[in-house]
């Protein structure tokens, strides 16, 4: 089973296969129409499409509870089916953690080329997703599956959050430290894995790790602004946070942690199309100073199941910059 190269069955890989951020911005803007509202809504929408779209939608249940709902799925990012399932589940659950919430229940989303890939491989993918969700204390039951030329897997997740203790894109305040809870580099290492079959255990472990502890620590520390770092890279998600909050985000490049071998992968040319599209999208909004091309690509690297980017300091995680009053550029990269 593990001799199959799952990554060879997909044109893209992981969150690098997302719709390019500029195109997605236009698509979301077309939906965010204040004139279009539900008839007699059953719940108050607290977080929706404003500001370019947060990590999940949030609706109020009562004064102390709000429902968080999200969905996330992607093509294989690694060849091992169990690891792919673990990574995809951690990535979907991360949307709830990125809002400061707790995941309650999930259902599977599976697209499978059943005539070319055995169903027992699909079972391993589902087992990996189930095990990570259960480790998060999240129930998993059923879901939806379709036949598809490319394999895809993920989850739709529902969670709970206190309405006054959410993490959101538009709440970053000047004077706050900027914290990142996982190292960057999964995108270039996944690109190398797809091209060569080389396995990077540190990258797999990082992608499969849950963001739950970091999320709970952030909420307990009084942090109210944040997002997770996935397909749009650190720079893309920092730009979205700065744009929504009306601030400038300064990133100290020397403080940003990277996975081992990530710099070598860039030097050897293993850069996905998604990462290059990310860089092209953010370039007009970033003051790079003297940052070289390789550094820019790493900061824009399309992450899969990355860490949380938080406007505040969380013990045990590196501070990589700060939030400043809005300046000439929404994002500044400092040496």
UniProtKB/TrEMBL annotation:
Mg(2+) binds at residues 55, 95, 228. The gene is selD. The keyword Zinc does not apply. It catalyses: hydrogenselenide + ATP + H2O = selenophosphate + AMP + phosphate + 2 H(+). ATP binds at residues 18, 52-54, 72, 95, 143-145. This is Selenide, water dikinase. Synthesizes selenophosphate from selenide and ATP. Residues 53-161 form the PurM-like N-terminal domain. Homodimer. Belongs to the selenophosphate synthase 1 family. Class I subfamily. One of its GO terms (cellular component) is cytoplasm. One of its GO terms (molecular function) is magnesium ion binding. The record marks 18 as: Important for catalytic activity. The active site is at residue 15. Keywords: ATP-binding, Kinase, Magnesium, Metal-binding, Nucleotide-binding, Selenium, Transferase. GO terms for biological process: selenocysteine biosynthetic process. Its cofactor is Mg(2+). It comes from Streptomyces radicis. Binds 1 Mg(2+) ion per monomer. Residues 173-260 form the PurM-like C-terminal domain. The keyword Kinase applies. It is an enzyme of class 2 (transferase). PROSITE patterns: PROKAR_LIPOPROTEIN (PS51257).
């Amino acid at each position: 089973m593990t001799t199959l190269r799952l990554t060879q069955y997909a044109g893209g890989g992981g969150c690098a296969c997302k719709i390019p951020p500029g195109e997605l911005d236009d698509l979301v803007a077309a939906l965010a129409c204040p004139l279009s509202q539900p008839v007699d809504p059953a719940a108050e929408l607290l977080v929706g499409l404003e500001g370019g779209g947060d990590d999940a939608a949030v609706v109020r249940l009562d004064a102390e509870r709000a429902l968080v709902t999200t969905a996330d799925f992607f093509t294989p990012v690694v060849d091992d089916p169990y690891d792919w399932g673990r990574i995809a589940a951690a990535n979907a659950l991360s949307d709830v953690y990125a809002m400061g919430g707790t995941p309650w229940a999930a259902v599977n989303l599976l697209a499978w080329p059943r005539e070319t890939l055995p169903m027992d491989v699909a079972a391993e993918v589902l087992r990996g997703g189930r095990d990570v969700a259960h480790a998060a204390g999240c129930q998993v039951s059923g879901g939806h599956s379709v036949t598809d030329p490319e394999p895809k897997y993920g989850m739709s997740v529902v969670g709970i959050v206190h309405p006054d203790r959410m993490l959101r894109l538009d709440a970053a305040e000047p004077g706050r430290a900027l914290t990142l809870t996982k190292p960057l580099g999964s995108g270039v290492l996944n690109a190398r894995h797809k091209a060569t079959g080389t396995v990077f255990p540190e990258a797999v472990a990082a992608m499969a790790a849950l963001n739950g502890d970091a999320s709970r620590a952030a909420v307990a520390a009084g942090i109210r602004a944040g997002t997770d770092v996935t397909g749009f890279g650190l720079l893309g998600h920092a730009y979205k946070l700065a744009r929504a909050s009306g601030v400038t985000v300064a990133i100290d490049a020397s403080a940003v942690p990277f996975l081992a071998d990530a710099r070598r992968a860039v030097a050897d040319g293993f850069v996905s199309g998604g990462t290059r599209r990310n860089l092209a999208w953010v370039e007009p909004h970033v003051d790079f100073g003297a940052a070289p091309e390789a550094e820019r690509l790493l900061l824009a690297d399309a992450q899969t199941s990355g860490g949380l980017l938080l406007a505040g300091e969380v013990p045990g995680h590196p501070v990589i910059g700060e939030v400043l009053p809005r300046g000439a550029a929404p994002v500044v990269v400092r040496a």
